[in-house]
Request: fold
Amino acid sequence: MFAKLERFKSKSLWAWLRALASSASLAFALAACTAQLADNRQATPNDTQKPAEMSPATQREHVRILAAYGGAYEQPKLEALLTQTVDRLVAASERPDFKYKITILNSPAINAFALSNGQLYVTRGLIALANDTSELASVLSHEMAHVIARHAAFREDQARQAVIFSRVATDLLGDPQMGALALARSKIALASFSRAQEFEADGIGVGISARAGFDPYGAQRFLTSMGLNADLKVRSSGAGETSTDQRPPDFLSSHPSTPERIKNVRLNARQYVGPGAGKRDKNEYLTLIDSLVYGDDPSDGFVRGRRFLHPKLGFAFTAPDGFILDNTAQAVFGVKDGGAQALRLDVVHAPNAQVLSEYLDSGWIENIDRDSISESTINGLPAATATARGNDWTFRLYVVRFENDVYRFIFASRNYSDASEHAFRESIGTFRKITPAEAASAKPRRIKVVKTAAGATVETLARRMAITDRAVERFRAINGLNSGDKLKPGELVKIVVE
Reply:
């Protein structure tokens, strides 16, 4: 968080709220491999274009990707490992003449994708989850397989059709909400349709890893960690046990379910070698990612429990009790009680001369109760508030002027009550300017690699984590440990520290 949204004009509260409350955001469902949906027609591997060169279209997409994922994460030794791994995989691939360029994205999201000209992207969140070089190689080879199999060009055409369908609904039918819903449904259908391509990419990728000398079972181990991490996210959100298809969007969103993929990659790996063969380099890999930033980068704002603090923009606020916050490039989102309550915070430019009560009634949000609009101050900052109502939801809106920007809060409750009104009012009351000392003291959480001592257990090491919420489950997830797995004295493991 977060880009300043000068062009954010959506009047529809219902669209983002339905997506947020369901924990399966329709509009942003294609979290994995979605960069292949860009306008890349001139960037497909062919005999006329040199690999890894950018056409104007892929250059624009590259810039958009960097903006959406917090820019590039620069760590020379880690970049060198990735480049060496990619070069080794390319030499063993079906296209050894094709060159790739890899970028590490400064994002806690667990994601990787490829543009069809050979631009590879991997987030530091994914790097932090992997536990050896072969696991990382399994992800890279999978994305290379999408390029080799020309999936990118096919999915681009499908995405373009979805956009055209959305524009028809919006422009001809005069219904922006229907257009957005049509686009979302088209993208969901596209994600489901691509499952066969994902299985194909798994098969190609495992073969590349095995021929390159990596342990091909790395794909199985990484997908196991992905499953543990996805389950943890669901339980942390308070949504309870859900099927894989109901999990929050991440690397698995446009992929088959974890059990299916694990079985598929294991069967593919068996065609090459038995378990235990191939290069893993676990200790070397873990040593290299020691001190890697984990979670949000404070320069982009970060979540600590219910509190959000942004050192660069200079503010902080605390969500109501029971809310789970998520920091994204577009906004800060929060949910409670599995989606019965929700919040959103974003920031826009607004002229200093514009009266905040008039801004609330300027068409930003539909169904405003004009009689509810009032002005006030929040910790010395000019503010205004109002309510809006839908069929099943009540929204409490706040706008706060801070320096040259306006911060917009949307609190929502399915069953609005005096208690929820009080909770929302208390939360907005925590919005304040932070001191320079607070900004300077904001430090990121990092991966720390430690050697297990004799007698060490998952529980004792989890107590050393800077994260107290579900620390044991989180320790198992980042180390790829199932519930029955035990630690061995002298092995390297990851913990999260501040």
User: Anything to note?
Assistant: Residues 151-172 form the longest helix (22 residues).
